[in-house]
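Notebook entry, structure prediction.
Reason for the run: the old model in the group folder had no record of what sequence produced it. Starting over properly, with the input documented here first.
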Amino acid sequence: MTKPDISDADWRTSSRSGGTGQCVAVALVGDDVAVRDSKHPDGAVLVFTHDEWTTFLDEIYAGDL
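New structure, fully documented this time:
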């Protein structure tokens, strides 16, 4: 997988985080989903395909994770 350009990513955090900065930040980057630690925005970024991200969320909602 080629690393996507995240320089102009529109990072979002959950409204449930209360603005405390203790949440993950997620951005749609092309066809991929980028995830980072909101406390360390210059740190590592994980990139998932749309299918991988959807599977991850489905497993969370199902209580499997």
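Summary: The first helix runs from residue 50 to 61.
The old model has been moved to the deprecated folder.
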